[in-house]
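subagent[fold] <- orchestrator: predict structure for attached chain, return tokens only, no commentary.
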Amino acid sequence: MKSGFKGRFGKGKAKGAQTQPRKPPRRRPIRRSQVISPFGIGAINDFRNDEALMCAGLDQWFPDGAAPDPALVVNEERLEARLGCSHFRKPPDFGEGEGSPKVKIPHVRFPLWHYCPRCFRMGKTTIFGGQPQCTECKSKAGHGRRMIPVRIVAICEHGHIEDFPFQNWIGCACSDADRNLFFEAGRSAASLAGIKISCDNCKKTRSLAGSFDKDALTGYKQCGGAQPWLGRETGVTTCGQALQTVQRGGANVYFPLVTSSIYIPPTRTAESDLIARVLDNPTVWRTLTSVTVDGKVPKDVCTAIAGVYQVDADALGKAVAARLAGSAALVVATTEEEFRKQEYDVLRSGGGRPQDDLFVERIEGSRYGWLGRFVTGIGLVRKLRETRVHVGFSRLMPQTDRGDPAVQPLGIADTIDWLPAIEVRGEGIFVELRADAIEEWLKDGVAGKRVRPLIGGYNHKRVERRLAERPVDARFIMIQTLAHALIKELTFTCGYGSSSLRERLYCSIENPKQPMNGFLIYTASGDSEGTLGGLVAQAAPGRFETLVHDALARASWCSNDPVCMESPDGGAFSSNLAACHSCVLLPETSCEEGNRLLDRALLAGTFDDPDVGFFRDLDFSWAQ
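subagent[fold] -> orchestrator:
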């Protein structure tokens, strides 16, 4: 995939700077999955040749308004209903071969301020302009030396971003035509005090010392509501929030909001394999659903399509009616927990066919020996399809609610009824824990007492950062820690790296009337054929018990003990107890909670109190 940007070239250049002339487009490769996260719309991407670009909004992805290639359309009924979209689209994939599509992901230039690495002269371009060149410093070829983007930008809590106000910071009142700024870095000190901003016209100068302090820009400039990814160099309305100085590549500059869903196939009792393949064709299904009358497809339309694909017209009509009935009966989940409950019910009951995108074989917990005391059943998820949708982003503070005003939109036009998404296929292991065993464990209150200060401190930190409290409990922490321990163990037994395995938690914390006590460990890759079954094979009876026992044994003793086990807090938000990288922490791409809310003591107990662990009756002395 390549990125590209369109629009006007270079106004607003400074003295000694010129806009780079048009040249053949550079190669700026981005993987399709990276456009969803972490280099999605609104993110600053650093490319070769010291070039920084920002992924543009959806309005410019298909500017001609033509229908997208059917191969790019992704349908996921549950997620479409929840997000209010008609469909999703994969980011276009740029091809180099003859006859391949030449669609590029549009980018704009940001930050706008650049400086010459040789003479430190600054120049400013536009979001649609080229990379500035310093006319005072000639390269060996006789051209102006290419300027590089400045390292710092300014953002606000509402998700806007703009250039650091260099002129305001040094007190320069020169006009755009008269200013002559310099960005002199690293001359007197390696800290911010060693970076001097000066104007050769008005002789004002100042270092960047203190510019990263909270409210450092108060009194110099307030947020103007700029949205460069939407083509808005200045805001439509003034935001008025305080600006915060950050490094352009800092972790707090961009927090993508990605919503995912495990595909649940509709009931297909009236379908043969041949008819299922016909109806799985996106073009056929769109044709059928576009001509419905009172929720039914006319018989002559079914007959025509049956003739094209040489299938029985009556059987096709019944299959279409069954699918439409299933779609009509689809319950739109209003919360994340309700959304997960739909998946949980399907995973725990099993079902599906090898031809479907979800095929689960359920095995009762009684077939797993001693483990049957703790699990109700195990789901061998031989096939699954996950849809990951980019719905927005925030800056400075991560947000999880799409309706939050701090979450920035991906486009301007109200007519955009789609969002960028990718489909990934893989396999997994679903574990459903026994509710009665959990209740028995929690009955004496020992586990709850241990994690109560942790949960209180975690929610206190969330409130301080203007996030809502979460009613998590010892059960939630235990379930997530068990998933982490199993992922760690699976990396030794099935050959997957820990970063290629993911967890998906099913734990009811808001609605106890709809209990969920389980988790899914799965691997999902972009390959259309999914994976090869190595993960599912570990969940077979006779093997999975050993896997769980070894995972718990490793979790019962850490190489950093007793420091790890006796740690009062750790991790982001001080939200972990006994958890470190030597025992249960995972790559953050694998954990839904960002490696928060973990405590391995809830699995096997502590040295002084073994009863605090859910698996307290098991012997792990060999591991110690």
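orchestrator: received. Logging for downstream: Confidence is low (pLDDT under 50) at residues 5-14. The longest strand covers residues 375-394.
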